[in-house]
């Protein structure tokens, strides 16, 4: 009987997670650089593992989103598999959302307050309100190169993982990208497929109903067992 409850619990837990991630995806369909996230399940492989102990893993679909022209000088779309580095306090994180505004100190600040980093480390400072930012990240002001925005990638492609669809973990040794570039005046759209998310939500709801049905069946069987025992004891 316990295996039936384990199965029902696993189904309902997995369905709840799928609904949560699908909701996150739909909520971020208009967020630049957002990558669609989904859960995968590693099935139990050891005889002692129960179905409910299988590991849920969250992964992101990392394919390139469409580029949208904005004409704003501090909007930067990443082309290819690279990531922008931003500093929040003492922490560095990696993003694809290249929507920045220039602070009064010349820092380029993301929508979540992160400061854009240079290719060789440190905050990128831009004096001009209308710089030219080249594909390789070099910042041109009055005809002179004054800095270079960093575009980074993991040491190996399998080390790139999504934290939440908007922030990414590049492993222990991220490096400057030789293949990715920047497009000034553009933003990368999210790659969320809303139709696919609706299908995922419907499937998750059906799975939830199946899990609830299993629990109902368990309760009915348990009730019959108690009734039988009660009659036998008379």
Automatic annotation (TrEMBL):
<dbReference type="GO" id="GO:0009425">
    <property type="term" value="C:bacterial-type flagellum basal body"/>
</dbReference>
<dbReference type="Pfam" id="PF06429">
    <property type="entry name" value="Flg_bbr_C"/>
</dbReference>
<protein>
    <submittedName>
        <fullName>Uncharacterized protein</fullName>
    </submittedName>
</protein>
<dbReference type="InterPro" id="IPR010930">
    <property type="entry name" value="Flg_bb/hook_C_dom"/>
</dbReference>
<dbReference type="InterPro" id="IPR020013">
    <property type="entry name" value="Flagellar_FlgE/F/G"/>
</dbReference>
<dbReference type="InterPro" id="IPR037925">
    <property type="entry name" value="FlgE/F/G-like"/>
</dbReference>
<dbReference type="InterPro" id="IPR053967">
    <property type="entry name" value="LlgE_F_G-like_D1"/>
</dbReference>
<dbReference type="GO" id="GO:0071978">
    <property type="term" value="P:bacterial-type flagellum-dependent swarming motility"/>
</dbReference>
<keyword id="KW-0975">Bacterial flagellum</keyword>
<feature type="domain" description="Flagellar hook protein FlgE/F/G-like D1">
    <location>
        <begin position="77"/>
        <end position="128"/>
    </location>
</feature>
<comment type="similarity">
    <text>Belongs to the flagella basal body rod proteins family.</text>
</comment>
<dbReference type="Pfam" id="PF22692">
    <property type="entry name" value="LlgE_F_G_D1"/>
</dbReference>
<feature type="domain" description="Flagellar basal-body/hook protein C-terminal">
    <location>
        <begin position="183"/>
        <end position="225"/>
    </location>
</feature>
């Amino acid at each position: 009987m316990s295996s039936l409850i384990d199965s029902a619990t696993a189904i309902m837990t997995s369905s709840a997670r799928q609904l949560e991630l699908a909701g996150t995806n739909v909520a971020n369909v208009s967020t630049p650089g957002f990558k669609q996230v989904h859960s995968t399940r590693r099935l139990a492989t050891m005889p002692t593992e129960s179905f409910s102990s299988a590991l849920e893993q969250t992964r992101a679909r990392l394919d390139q989103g469409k580029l949208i022209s904005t004409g704003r000088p501090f909007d930067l779309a990443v082309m290819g598999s690279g990531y922008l580095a931003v500093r929040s306090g003492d922490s560095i994180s990696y993003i694809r959302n290249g929507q920045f505004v220039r602070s009064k100190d010349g820092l380029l600040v993301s929508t979540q307050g992160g400061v854009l980093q240079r290719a060789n480390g440190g905050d990128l400072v831009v004096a001009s309100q209308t710089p030219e930012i080249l594909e390789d990240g070099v910042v041109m002001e009055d005809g002179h190169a004054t800095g270079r925005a960093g575009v980074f990638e993991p040491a190996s492609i399998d080390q790139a993982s999504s934290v939440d669809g908007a922030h990414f973990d590049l492993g222990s040794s991220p490096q400057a990208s030789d293949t990715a570039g920047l497009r000034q005046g553009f933003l990368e759209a999210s790659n969320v497929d809303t139709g696919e998310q609706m299908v995922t939500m419907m499937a998750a709801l059906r799975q939830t109903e199946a899990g609830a049905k299993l629990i109902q069946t368990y309760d009915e069987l348990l009730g019959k067992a108690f009734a039988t025992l009660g009659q036998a004891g008379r």
